[in-house]
Amino acid sequence: MNDRAHSPRQQGVNRRVSLALQGGGSHGAFTWGVLDRLLEDRRLEFDCVSGTSAGAMNGAVLCSGHSTDGREGARAALRRFWQEVGEWGRWSPIQRTPYERLSGDWRIDDSPGFMLFDGLGRMLSPYQFNPMNINPLKLVLEKSIDFDALRYAAGIHLFVCATNVRNGKVKVWENRDISLPVLLASSCLPGLFQAVEVDGEHYWDGGYMGNPAIWPVVYESQSRDIVVVQINPIHRQELPRTALEIQDRLNEITFNASLMREMRAIHFVNRLIEAGKLDPREYRSNRIHLIAADQSLTDLHASSKLNAEPDFLEHLFAIGRRTAEAWLERHFDALGRSSTIDIPALYL
C-alpha cells in the first residue's frame, strides 16, 4: 500500500485529516452534504479516504473530481453524481405513495414497488428475478468517474472494500486497482444484485466486514486525525416489534458491527501507548472524530435508503451540510490535538 501520489499541500491549510465514509444506500446523500461543506473549508486537506458502498462511491467521485480541478472539482463532481442518481430515481418503480407525499414522509415501505421487490427477494434470488443483472448504478458511475484520473493522479489515497463471498474476508482496493466492478462490488446487496466478479473472485457489499474499513487509514495515513462520517444509527430508543422493524434493526446492527470492533481496537492501542506499554515508534495513537446526524437519520425509516427521489437527496444533502457546519464550529480546533468523541461511551 505504498503506491501514492499526493498533490502539493495547498497554501493556508491548517489541518490534514483522513475520512472514513459509511455506506447506507441513498442516505449516502447525507455524506455528500458533509463532504461539500468540508471541501468548502480551505483550512482542511484530505490525506486518505476509506469508503464502503455509498461511501465508496462518494470517495471515488470526490477523488476523481479533485484530481482534475481540486476541491471545487470534487464538489462539482459530487453534485453531478447525486443529480444523476436522482434522475434515475424519478423513474424508479419504487416510489412514495400519494399519502406519504402529502404527509411529507420519505419512507417507501408502503409503496407497491417496494412490496413487489421485497416479496420477490424473499422467494427468488437476483439470479432469478434479475437474470440480466441490470444495475442502474453502473451507468451512473460510468458517467460520473474518470477512473484513469482516480487511479493515477487523485492526490488522495482512496480505499474501497467489499466482502469476499467464498471466504467471508474483507477485500480492500486502493487507487491504482479501483475500477467500475470494484465500486459495484462494494455496494452489492446480495438480495438485490448478483455477486460482482473481480479478478476471478466474487464479492458482496463491503458493509458486512468493513463499514468502513478503518485499518488501511490507520496504517497509511500521514495524519492521525480520522473523521468518521456515520449514517447507520447505533442507538435506537424504541424496541422494534414488527417483522420489518426487526429486520431493519438487524441490518443496522450488522452494518455497524465492524466499525464497533475497529473502534475497540483503536481505543485499546491508544491506551497501551499512553500507558507506555507499546513503543510509539512502532505503534501510533489515532485521534477519532465523528460526524453523524443520528436523530435526523434515525427518524428516517430504513426503507428510505431505497428512495432516490431528487428532493429527498437534496433534503439529505442539506442535513449533511448543516451537520458538518456545526461540527466544524465545535471541533475544528481539536484537530491535531485530541479526539472529539468518547470511544468507550459510543462503541464499547
Please summarize what this structure is.
The protein is an alpha/beta fold. It is 47% helix and 14% strand.
- The arrangement of helices and strands along the chain is EHEHHHHHHEEHEEHEHEHHH
Distance between the termini: 30 Å
Structural class: alpha/beta
Radius of gyration from the alpha-carbon trace, in angstroms: 19 Å
Which percent range fits the helix content? 40-55%
Your description of this structure?
- There is one protein chain.
- With 348 residues, the protein is α/β, with parallel strands linked by helices.
- It contains 13 helices and eight strands.
- Strands 1, 2, 3, 4, 5, 6, 7 and 8 form an eight-stranded mixed sheet that branches.
- The longest helix is centred in the N-terminal third of the chain and has 37 residues, at 54-90.
- The chain is globular, with a radius of gyration of 19 Å.
- The two termini are 30 Å apart.
Write the layout of secondary structure elements.
Layout: E1 15-21, H1 28-40, E2 44-51, H2 54-90, H3 98-103, H4 112-123, H5 126-129, H6 136-144, H7 147-152, E3 157-164, E4 170-174, H8 180-186, E5 196-198, E6 201-204, H9 215-220, E7 225-230, H10 243-274, E8 287-292, H11 294-298, H12 310-331, H13 343-347
Helix pairs in contact: 1-2, 1-12, 2-6
Looking at this protein, list some descriptive labels.
348 residues, globular, 13 helices, disordered N terminus, eight-stranded mixed β-sheet, alpha/beta, 47% helix
